[in-house]
Design a protein that fits this description.
3 copies of one chain form a homotrimer. By secondary structure, chain A is mainly α. Chain A has one domain. Chain A is 74% helix and 0% strand. In chain A, helix 1 packs across helix 4 and helix 5 runs antiparallel to helix 8. The radius of gyration of chain A is 17 Å and the shape is globular. At the A-B interface, helix 1, helix 2 and helix 4 of A face helix 2, helix 6 and helix 7 of B.
Chain lengths: 204, 204, 204
């Protein structure tokens, strides 16, 4: 239940970030709606396609497309002062990341996938939407150089799936994994943590 | 029948536009053939993958790949004066857009998908090929800032699927939806119509 | 057996090329691992998704993800003098290309696909990983302007599938197709062969 609520909040936050990215490129409304939907739903879609998990969740529940479109319209309406919401966005985005990661792990586990694939499915669900958004905006995906974003997703997934495989209580494990993941992510944003970069400058 | 003919014409037109885009980047022949195929077939492929509608249409009918390759060769042959064909291309492209949208709606409807998904399947079929072409050429997809392209596809899909759900005659509805969509698209190109743009310039 | 060994070697070589590409963009470790995996596994993944061939091979055998991650770490460790390995890389890459092409053809043939689709499946397996790598790095895919890369894959596939359809001995055909493809590729790299380019400069 709570997971459903947070999933939808994450979807809204991500759709809004897609709409803002579209606005940076002066896209028309159609572009804004598409980018919002792709950002919000790209991760889960990629997960389902890779796992062969049909029908896709937003095809089964088309009202989800209404949510992303509504969020895009909302982002355009409040655009003049959306920058003041940056902190709220970062919080919502972080909550969304850990919650959606757990949803993704569950989908893979329900299909009987092993540990590594369940964790990966969680990471794909949490991270791919932003990557597709950045590709459509013609820039190197932020994910590849941002503060522990994918790492937090992987950490949350490992804690969650690991806890379940140890036989711990599902709700408890979910709450603990989310809390730890969320804390790490917020600290990473606050103190600008990141994994080391790898720089290669020679010709190859 | 007529729909088949126009679908193939659209495929040819899109394959040629892919070949020309490849030529702008001085790609080699392989690149030209690939970009032609991806532009012509990307929309239907994305639709089928998202719907889980296997086998893909061009895997079932591999001669389609011969059509796109032939169209690419043709585009290279007539490249010196292909710019004079701009009007013919725009017309063919517009006809293709509405016809292919209807084909896409039908695929989703045959799978028992509801209204919103059928319309979306039509739009994906009509629009995604050009988006993939632009990504492969490393530019922001034109779709996101072009005259009512995706909007025309959505309009055609709504009219068509809506008409069918009202129980109207299928052929009649298809013809009417195509005629209206085509008219709007041609007027949009002629008078440079577009949906409003959303521009966001602040940092986020 | 030998095919398995070379497939894994190809995977390692491609994962390393993905890691190096990530290093050129100063990505963080997560970006490096993702780009390595996508480069090494993107081709087979695209083939399986297009053919509807589930479960994907790396989901069935998750240790493959360990191989790509290990290769990425190895690439970072030896980065200071990896440029001296350019020749070894080109050789490994060429061997991998022809071997992986044959694996891809086999997957399609086992599903009962006809000649053209089997050859195409081979090409997709061999070439798509590099294309996705380049898209994620925000550049026009090298494939579209490099020495006979995709052409060698298509040639190998035609020889292999053609030989099988003529009823020749499978191992013999595989070895012959690989040897010819490899020779052509190495000569192409050595003498800078390419297919002609198509350049189009007018407005359209």
């Amino acid at each position: 239940m709570l997971i459903d609520v947070f999933s939808i909040l994450a979807m809204v936050a991500w759709a809004m970030s897609g709409a803002i990215a579209a606005g940076r490129r002066s896209m028309d409304w159609v572009g804004v709606f598409i980018l919002a939907a792709v950002t919000a739903l790209g991760g889960g879609t990629m997960r389902d396609v890779l796992l062969g998990h049909y029908p896709l969740y937003w095809i089964e529940r088309p009202w989800i497309l209404g949510v992303t479109t509504g969020a895009a319209i909302f982002a355009m309406l409040i655009a003049p002062f959306i920058d003041r919401l940056r902190r709220a966005y970062l919080l919502l985005d972080a909550v969304g990341l850990v919650v959606v990661t757990i949803v993704g792990c569950d989908v893979a586990r329900d299909m009987g996938q092993p540990f590594a694939i369940a964790v990966l499915a969680g990471m794909i669900t949490g991270c791919v939407g932003g990557v597709v958004r950045d590709i459509l905006c013609n820039q190197v995906p932020l994910l590849f150089s941002s503060e522990l974003y994918a790492s937090v997703s992987v950490l949350t997934g490992i804690l969650y799936v690991g806890g379940l495989e140890l036989g711990l209580d599902a709700s408890l494990v979910a709450i603990a994994a989310c809390a730890i993941g969320l804390t790490v992510r917020l600290l990473a944003v606050r103190y600008n943590w990141g994994t080391p970069q790898f720089t290669y400058t020679k010709d190859w």
